[in-house]
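Working notes for the structural subgroup meeting. M.R. asked for a predicted model of this chain before we commit to crystallization trials. I am recording the input and output together here so anyone reviewing the notebook later can reproduce the run.

Input as submitted:
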Amino acid sequence: MVPSLQSLGLVDLLSSDPRPTFVVQVSQSSEAPSTEIQYRNPALEALITLDQSVSAIPQDASHLPFWKWVTNPPPKAHSEVDPESQAASVAQHSLTYFGIFWTRSLVCGQWVVMSGNETAPSSEPPRKKRIERRKGSPIAFRHSQTPILDSPSQRKSGSKTPIIYRADSNPGLMVPIFASEPEPFLDIVQSVDWASTSLGPTADWSRQLQQTFNQVISDSRPIALYWGPDYVTIYNEAFSKYCGSTHPSRLGRSADETWPHLKSKLDEVMTMPPGACSKVEDETRFFVQQPDGSREEVYAQWSMVPIISDKKCLGVQHSLLDITSKRLWERRMKMLVNLGEALVTSRDVSSYWTKTIEELERWSPSYDVPLAFIYSVSEDDDGSSSASRYDCPRICRLEGSLGVPANHPIAPSLLKLQDSDDGLAPMFRESLNSPQPLLLQTKDDSLPRMLLHGLEWRGFGDSCQAAIICPIRPTKDEHVMGILFLGLNPRRPYDNDYRQFISLLNQKLTSSLASTVLLEEEAHRRRNATEQAAHDNAMLKERLEYQTEQTNRSVQTLRAVAEFIPAGMCFVDPNDNIAFANDAWHRITGYPKGTISHGALLESVMEEDKPKLIRAYKDSQKRDVVTCVYRILRNRDSPNHEGMKSPPSTLVRPDGKVVRHILASIKAERAPDRSVIRTLTCLTDVTVEKEATDEAIRRAQEAENLKRLAEYATVGMYDMSMDGRLLSANNLFWELTGLPKVDLSDVVVKPWPQCVVKEDLDVLEKSLRKLEESGRSQTAEIRLQTPWVTEDSDGNPSMSSRWVLATFMPVKSSDGVILSFTGCLSDVSVQKWQLDQEKSRKEEAIESKRQQENFIDMTSHEMRNPLSAILHCTDAIIASLSKVQDLIENPIPLTPTQADANMTDQAPRPERSEEEKRLLEDSIENAETIVTCAQHQKRIVDDILTMSKLDSKLLAVTPCTVDPIEIVTDAMKMFEVEARRVDIELTSSVDESYRNLGFDYLDLDPSRVKQVLINLLTNALKFTKSGKTRTVKIYVKGSMHPPGRDMTVVNFIPRFCDVSEEYDQPALRGRTNPVYLLFEVKDTGQGLTTLEMGNLFNKFVQASSKTHVKYGGSGLGLFISRRLIELQNGAIGVSSEPGVGSTFAFYIEAYLPSEASRNEALAAAAAAQLVASTDSAAAMEGKRALNLRDVRLQRHQNPGGNIRLDGILIVEDNLINQQITRRGLTDRGYTVDVANHGIEALDKLQRQQTISPRAGLGVGLALSGSTSGANLLPIAINLVLMDIEMPIQDGLTCTRRIREQEANGEVFCASGGRIPIIAVTANARPEQMMEAKQAGCDDVLVKPYRIPELIEKMQMVVRRMGGLSPNSPVR
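Returned structure, recorded in token form:
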């Protein structure tokens, strides 16, 4: 053998095997199988699902048969095992599991190799495989297999176990009998000790029995077998349900023991001749014993069929067909039909209840009515009583019962649902609001067991475990009129059939009640009509008899009396003519005395009531007496009003006529043939009585409403004596105070000490003392001891004190003595809680805003400081290079003596090469480029910070009084150098519309307007410098109304957000009568297309994708401009044409300034103009002295000869900015000193007080910039440049200390008076600039800045302070 082949191991072989394979160590014994898989090859691990399933086999008990087969140890040689069994065990080396055909291989007697194939091999057709079962092992009969037992002659001699043959597709492979999920019923069958029965072990069963068993066990119908002469019972799983709790004990037992009543039937079938009828059928009802001891009623049709073999009856097959639902439905439908027929005969609601309970009692069998009682439900007259516990003003009266003894607690004779919990009152209250029947069960305690004791159960006599409450309504929209309590059949479950029966029963009761109610109402109406007719007839007869008797005796007397009685009387003939009328009739109707014309009867009647009176006269033709009330109209000043009560003011119409109510009683006098001879009409004025009746009804209703209002008021109302005793209170008062409600007529309650928090008792007593002293109403906010619970935003409960607003109103006697006081308690806990929440949210918002402002300030400070240094250094480079260039172009000797010597010498200086000059020019141009880039960077920083403020809603518009033209001029100055460098003509124009307004100064925010102009000018220069025609022009226009197309060609874009959604600008609040300023920036650049214009004014969006590549930019400028304009109530837009140019325009709202603001602006402008003119004069003078070097040196030594600006203290903690600023000012001839923080600055100011105001001129002690105090003498300080953010002591604190010491005379300006202080800071917010001025700074300069801007600012401050005369030069 090749050595390399010999060295190969088992693992090498398995790792290359494409079949899924795993290795297990053989168990040492069958009792303790191995619990671990030793190896899995790559092919198995690649099949993730199969690998996970195989890995779980050792730990999963459901796989234990398979695992035992895998790990089964080989049989030992000396073991006493049946050789055939041993051979069979060894032969069992393959089977299918997890859908894989596994092959088991034993290696070296220690390792089991399990190899898997997707399908089992089938090299030959199936053949019979002999399988012998070990003695005592259970046999498994499957529905899908039919085991066939061999005949005794085929058994091997000496073998006592049956031999089973099966079709096997894998010849020679014996499949072990196991399953991971055995069928439960088969397990039960297998667990029966069949050996103890006459049938013997299952292995000894006959073939006929096994075939019959397999057929029955796989049948879904309930079937039982009674086998042999002992009728041994075998049944399938469907039949086991009818055995109930006796299953599986009936299996294997004789039917004589389990069902003795079947003995005769079984004998009849067993002894039936083979040629006779082979089937016995019948129907029966029986009761299935349940595990809980209860019994279930079941109806079934059954049949018994003998099992014949060789003309011999081997057994009986017993089949069942469940007809329970059918028989119960027939029984219940019959009951419903009988109930409906009985209830139809009810004529009133009372008889309806009686017939219902009687019919329920007649139901036979009474299994479905083991218990029943019925209540009628009516309104409770005391439903509004304050003592009610529940909002359910109903009374239930017991109308009848079945199975309930008298006075049993489950059915009291009377139940008041508004305050009772007796019996089933809580369930009755619930059923009143339920549209469907309500199910009660003992298992969930909805049907209390204690109420079931002592009942006389009907039907089976078993206690009910469930009941139904049926609310009975005539219609869905009406209230419940009755409640039926019906106990459910204890031997039937409450299934769908039972639910349908209850639903039909409820419908039958509801429909029958509706019919009964309609019949009763109709009968009541007929009875009322009959009684009224009888009453009318009796009255008419009585009156006729009386009138007949009196007419014969005293006709004249009646006439005389008729004239004096207050009731109006008249006789009307059949033609409606008035034959007689007394004086009272004339007074009431207002008809003048004399001849009464036809139609006078209706003349004074109101049109609306004439049909009523006519109908009454028509009714008098049929009835003896007819009464009606109608209205008449009378003039208020009618002479016939004598003797009549004055009408109420409410009955007087606007036209002055009086409405009066008349009660007319009409009686017809009839002939013997019942024809009307004449009609007597009596009129009575009932105006006052009707008004009194209406008033009484109204007052009664008001009293009732007030009573209900007090009960259902949302505030606690009370009445209390002066000693604190509670006299009366509504429900909410008791609820708020947490006191138990009691009868105040029997119990003395003093609520305040019990319900008020101790800390608030003093407040309460103080208010009550004020009430007693002043006699006026008092209020107080106090806390009650009852807790108030709410939920926070996370849904967590939060408990706090209950706050109430207590009102105390005195109740005085007629003498003005305070007898008691009344009031109310209003729960203000929610308002208190909301106030606390609002305070908390406000504090959080303020803190968030402060943090955002701090972040913006820090970012601004840290980004602007380096830019300031860049600008200063670049200016210094440009100045130095320009000076060198000036020296090259104009070589001048240092002193006149040297100049004379040079003139005598006449030695020509060497000329500079063109290369050197070009380098100087390039360096200057590069430095200017750095300046331009720094300024661009500053704009980007400004845009980012502005964007941050906009997003945080922190950007504020701060109007101040300025000249709009100066804003445009300042913006143009910033771009003059850049425009000149790229050869662009930059101009401005003021339109006539602005001049016509006549306003030189307006209130607006110049920084925001200038920021927009800078953005627009930056874009205009950027896109114009590459064109042939290079012009940029700014137009300023004005109007008193918003600009339209008459002022500009630009289309203004819509607002970014609605005005209502814009955050508030306090500085603009309350300003009216705006002036609209329009600014246009027109250029001759490349122009924009319509698509490109649509992309403008959006955040981070440019005109096109090429714009950023060619021109750069962030895409923020126009969006920021848009938002800044909209915050000033303006708009922005663009009009452009490709190849021609673009026009950007915007307008804002400006406002007229006050007179004081305008004067201040004029003074500032005059100072600035004077500074500018002085600088211009100095520049002209400098040009004239350009060729005199000694003059130049003199200017460096003494700038302007002005002490006011000579001596500048720079207070700055940044050493770079400190050094650059000091050098820039020193180069321009100023005497400068520096300080690192506020403490050092105060020290220098205090030390300089020892110098006289004029000392230190020309002494450059501070030119070195030392701050260590090494100078021999301090300089005279005339101005302070103060940084804000500094360590040890910040600039604002230092400024305040300087102003305090100035007020105390401790420090002063070297030139006398107030020390000018200019805040130099990178914090650019208007609020911060205002804070600096409030601290004592005279002005603020924002970083980055340039030295000329600083000098200009210093000159303006000094001029504005009035330290110099208007004509004094200031450097």
